[in-house]
Amino acid sequence: MKALLTTPAKYVYYALATDATMMFGLAHLATGDSQLCDWYARTIHHASSRLGAYLIIDNGLMERGEAMSFGDMRFAAAKVAADEVILPDVYKDAEATRDCVQDALTRIEHDGEVPFNCMAVIHEQIADDLARTLEEWAKHSAITAVGVPKYYTSALRWPQGRISVLKVIKRLGLHTRFKVHLLGVQDDILEVQTIARGFPWVRSVDTSWPIMAGLKGIDITQFPTHKIDYEPDPKGTPNTAMVLRNIQTYQYLVSGE
Q1: Which of 92-115 are b and which e, b meaning 16 or more Cβ less than 10 Å from the residue's Cβ?
Q2: d(CA 165, CA 154)
Q3: Which of 15, 81, 103, 193 could be 49's S-S partner, Cβ–Cβ 3.0 to 4.6 Å?
Q4: pTM surpassing 0.85?
Q5: Maximum Cα interatomic distance, the chain, rounded to a whole number of Å
């Protein structure tokens, strides 16, 4: 499993410290009108177009409270040369998310192929509903990946958290149809190690946890359940040594060793 890092704009260079073959960016930062946002956009564009990194851009739902529209995501993708776009979704609302995905697919069908792959995010709360949604999305070649949000880790209807969701995907045989991405880490960073060992076909996971903890001098090895949430503009002097140590730990966990 690939380890991807979500970073505040001014620390985007840390995102290249894991694996230069793949990178995760925030579309709303790349399309902002500040000098910092311009620098962020140039950095991830350079990673994609010059360094050859496979660039995924997120719709900003968790950071903004609302996902960017598909039109705005297309603009962002063009600006940074993104390889994959996370389609608009609505937090914990499966029906509204399906409508968002269908709207994007309709636009793609009308306009012709887009120069990027699409990731659709699941929000179903019942296994049968999840199966129907995945089987429907599998009919559309534009959708090459599915995202599994971090809140499934503690969702009551999924007793094994995201592992329950991954089991459904495997049972349907769709683990070979879709690339699977874990959207964030909930409350125990060791979860990714368990998933990496049991489900080696999961492609990637993103989180800001190792960086945000490191900036505050917190070692995730000693405090694997001490979650530090994403901050768009963290204050203070960064503890670079701890950030890099946390990144190495994160890489080891997602390797499944």
Answers
A1: eebeebbebbeebbeebeeeeebe
A2: 12
A3: 81
A4: yes
A5: 52
Q: Name 56's bridge partners.
A: 24, 84
Determine the distance from the C-alpha atom of residue 134 to the mean position of all C-alpha atoms in its chain, rounded to a whole number: 18
User: Phi and psi (nearest 5°) for 175?
Assistant: -70, -15
DSSP states along 121-152: E---SSHHHHHHHHHHHTT-TTEEEEEEEGGG
Give all strands of the β-sheet with 143-149 in edge-to-edge order.
Answer: 2-5, 202-207, 179-183, 143-149, 117-121, 84-86, 54-58, 22-26
Torsion from C-alpha of 38, 39, 44, 45, nearest 10 degrees: 60
- Under a CB-based contact definition with an 8 Å cutoff, are residues 149 and 191 in contact? no
Q: What is the pLDDT along the chain (257 residues), one digit of tens a residue?
A: 999 999 999 998 888 776 668 999 999 999 988 999 999 999 999 888 878 889 999 999 999 999 999 999 999 999 999 999 999 999 999 999 999 999 999 999 998 888 999 999 999 999 999 999 999 999 999 999 999 999 998 877 888 999 999 999 999 999 999 999 999 998 888 899 999 999 999 999 999 999 999 998 999 999 888 888 888 888 888 889 999 999 999 999 999 88
Strands 143-149, 179-183: pairing kind: parallel
Determine contact, residues 144/204, Cβ cutoff 8 Å.
Answer: no
Residue 17: C-alpha distances to residues 84, 165, 247 (Å):
20, 30, 7
Q: Where are the beta strands (DSSP E) in 59-173?
A: 84-86, 117-121, 143-149
Q: Are 214 and 245 in contact (CB under 8 A)?
A: yes
Domains and CATH numbers, the chain: 2-208 (3.20.20.105)
